[in-house]
Amino acid sequence: MKLTITSCLSVGLALLWILAQPNRGQAAEGEQGKELFERRCSGCHSLDKDKEGPRLQGVYGRAAGSLPGFEYSDALKASHLNWDADTLDRWLTDPEQVVPGNDMAFRLVKADERAAIIAFLKAQRAVER
Ligand code: HEC
Prior knowledge:
By secondary structure, this protein is mainly α.
């Protein structure tokens, strides 16, 4: 009897917990790249100002490590990468694997979030001046 009550309680609590989560699984899907960029990247990047990481306006299509005025790691400067959907996706998945010795201590494991952010960065290219 005791066991049953305990189990009911745990199930009830688990249900409550699940209900209290705002659609965890679906949240990323519906979110715009801009919001994800702000949430995941803006601690270190902005579009138009250098922070801990370089400004990312127009990064899509740009050569890696090529912005004047930002102190890149030697590794990134020597990488000869060009940022496109493929290189950005690999970079965000695991920078260390793409450019060993780089300075970006960050990984984005969710493929749908990477795709949304890359689409957002690509769109920023159009408004670059
Ligand atoms: C913990 C801080 C940090 C976070 C979070 C971070 N970055 Fe970075 N990022 C850096 C640093 C530092 C560099 C410079 C790396 C180097 O010089 O080796 C960099 C470099 C880059 C570059 C290369 C830029 C160039 O001019 O070649 C891209 C692209 C980039 N980050 C995209 C992103 C995106 C998109 C996100 C969010 C999903 C993100 N970063 C999150 C710190 C960060």
